[in-house]
Amino acid sequence: MPTDPRSLPRGLSRRSFLGAGVAATAGLGLFGCGGQSTTKSGGQANLQFMYWGSANEKAAIEQMTKAFEKSHSGTKVQPVHVPGDYETKVNTLVASNNLPDVAYMTAPTAYRLAEQGKIANIYPYIEKYSQLSGRKPQNFFWYGDKQVAGTPAASEISLLWYNKDLFTDASMTPPAEADKAWSWDQLLEVATALTLDQNGKRPSDSGFKADRIRQFGLSAPLSTQWTWYPLIRSNGGDVTDESGTKYTLNSPECVKVFQDLQDLIYKHKVAPSPAQLGGGDTANAPTTTVQLQTKRVAMAIDGQWTLLDMGESDLKYGIGVLPTYQEPITQEAGSCRVMSSSTKHPEQAIELYAYSVDGSNSDLFKKGLWMPVETKYYSDASAIDAWTKNDVHPPEYRTAAVDYRLNNSVRDFTQVLKNVPAIQEVLTPAIEQIATGKVPAKTVLDGLEAKIQPLLKGRYPIPNSI
Amino acid sequence: MTDEVAIRRTAVTRAARKLRSGVSGQSRLERRWGLLLALPAIIGFVVFSLAPMAVSAVLSLTDWTIGSTPSFVGVDNYVHMFSQDPLFLKSLGVTTYYTLGAVPLTLVVAFAIAMLLNAKVRGLGVYRTIYYLPTLVPSVANAVLWLWIFNPDFGLLNSTLRQLGAPTSNWVFSETAVVPSLILMSSWGFGNIMVIFLAGLQGVPRHLYEAVAIDGGGAWRQFRHVTLPMMTPVLFYNLVTSIIGTFQVFNQAYIMTQGGPNNASTFYVYYLYTTAFTKSEMGYASALAWALFVIVMVITVALFRSSNRWVYYEMGAAR
């Protein structure tokens, strides 16, 4: 029996305090380990939809998920917006087995997760949903025979953008049809005519000050494959041979393109270096819209997605096709939409999946951020009008983007080659070397062979038909 | 032994026991409360530091790619690191280069400013605030700000150099200039170190300066023979923490350079990060983390060993 009357309550409170503390901490730990991404409460299926993107994309996705909930009673969708560090988030979710039901995914990660069985093979669902069956085989991420990691909701291509105010002479305006595409020399000529130093002199004038350039003729950032990959393909080159097992980036065709791009900056002085662009990586540089608007550049090679930004600005923008070497070519790509293999509600999840990749379920197609993927949006006149007949899409869009994508696009190599993260780790620094202009393209690309060749593990197969 | 003595002894023993148990009860109580109050910190350390470290140590012996099943590979990751991974050595070299530049520069700048701010001038508080302000700028904002300062065409640095007729640089956009540029930028963040120096300077006894003055010593001798020796413990502390900090440099590469151009700014932790989260090779990334831990520990131990020779403690052995 305790002698001190105060000791009993104090002892008990101490113990309970301790116990509460431990319980709370343990609870916190469990909370940190996460619950399930999907739950079912009262017969309702709760799904998670994870995505990246700007504020515009966020608004559009939230609108899409709400519309889905309306048309699919009994299903609730929680949109999870991850504006930055997406791969980090994905990796932690995979490690804790909490992948959302439906999610955006970069191609290399989608392939990896498919091979690990973390995401569902959507091949069995293709026939059932017209949004999926109405696509070409190259619009899917195949990781084996009848094995599909996913398909994009939207597609993008590479284009030549320009500020219309700077093109008073119609003969100099970038062509908007693939078969009228400029040769490299024609592009260079126009870019030279549009490059001005602080005193208004051109690179061809005497007394031109290369270190005081006010307006560059063209921006063609080497830091992204959206610039160089379509051009090497246009010249008949590629990163690897068709099997994806032999390095070919040092072929004369590829070297020519990379040297041309380097010369634009350092020999002809008509394009900004990565430094002059304001960022070694395009992420830190001013946007293409701003660069065109401020007349820092007259033309710029950039992706179709820029149209959203352009449409919201006062800039009088124009769209042309890329210059051509042997044949007019642009690059096409779209991020992979995936469905978790461990979803608690596969039926509802695949419904959401198909709904979310449907070209008619988002206003981002009309706003210019995305191009639809289903074939009908490129062949059926009313379907084409549905997303391109508006103020954002200029008249030349029909030939410069719609037809261009349909007839002249090749798929981004990072979406078909295996082991891309490891390849990029050595490829990116090498291209930075070309971009900084200290070493000729051939030397860099020859030196790269020994580094990339051991990393080549082939290509993912794309069948001729679904 | 008589009964009386025995009884007395028993009483004494009881009293002693009682006394002992009283003391031990008190100390037990204190121990319990101490433990209880320290518990959040202990749990935090165990859950968020010790356990992840232990897990990463185990993972470093596997080939775990996130999403797959890890298999045990022994010390293969460590062997690969030293024998077949050029980026490991490259990133370690870049980080060492940065440390060798940034640590001395920051310490010298911080020390010099602290000396100035220790002077008796009017408006001292205002100066101290102004010099500390850059430290309050979030590191991401700071990185973006410096990106503009470094812009070769219209950045502050090149504009100034051009006006002076001096040669310009491509700063962070050049393979050779990127690390020196980031070192220059690091000196901007001297505020915290400066405050510690300032606190140290205010603890230097006045009478020592007076003694030097009486002996005819000027400002240099006062600095050389009083300030510097008396400040060595503070200098030592700042040196150790700065080195540990610079070996973990990450933001500049992540925000400003993405490790480029041509890996010239691929700092160790940035490389570790891309290995873990871009390539998803968590096993190898864990091995990289442990290698860094060992490297930093060796440097720290070496510094502590060397401190006997150059760090002066007024209290003698009381360190």
Automatic annotation (TrEMBL), chain A:
| Protein name, UniProt field | Carbohydrate ABC transporter substrate-binding protein (CUT1 family)
> What Gene3D superfamilies does the annotation carry?
Periplasmic binding protein-like II
Q: Which Pfam families match?
A: SBP_bac_1
The record's listing under InterPro entries reads:
Bact_solute-bd_prot1 (IPR050490), SBP (IPR006059), TAT_signal (IPR006311)
PANTHER family cross-referenced by the UniProt entry:
ARABINOSE-BINDING PROTEIN-RELATED (PTHR43649), DIACETYLCHITOBIOSE BINDING PROTEIN DASA (PTHR43649:SF12)
UniProtKB/TrEMBL annotation, chain B:
Q: How does it sit in the membrane?
A: Multi-pass membrane protein
Q: Which GO terms describe its biological process?
A: transmembrane transport
Q: What's a Pfam family this protein contains?
A: BPD_transp_1
- Transmembrane among keywords: yes
Signal peptide (from-to): none
- Where can this protein be found? Cell membrane
The UniProt entry's GO CC annotations, sorted and at most eight, read: plasma membrane
- Family membership, please give it: Belongs to the binding-protein-dependent transport system permease family.
Return the protein name.
Answer: Carbohydrate ABC transporter membrane protein 1 (CUT1 family)
